[in-house]
Amino acid sequence: MKYKLIGFLATLLLLLANLTSASACSLSQYQPEVPESLRR
């Protein structure tokens, strides 16, 4: 029972992390311009 609960919590937290990171990336399409000194 204890291992099922730990597995469920890990899955839930992973899903939550994926959802929040995906929403943060899609809301702001900001890509700063790369300086000339850093370009190859």
Calculate the terminal CA-CA distance, rounded to whole Å: 55 Å
Q: How large, in whole angstroms, is the Cα Rg? A: 18 Å
Secondary-structure element pattern, one letter each: H
* Category by helix and strand content: mainly alpha
> Roughly what is the average pLDDT, rounded to an integer?
82
Overall body shape: elongated
State the helix count: 1
Unreliable spans are: none
Strand content: under 5%
Q: Roughly how much helix do the residues carry, as a percent range?
A: 55-70%
Q: How is the biggest beta sheet arranged?
A: none
Please characterize this protein's 3D structure.
The chain has 40 residues and is an all-alpha fold. It contains one helix and no strands.
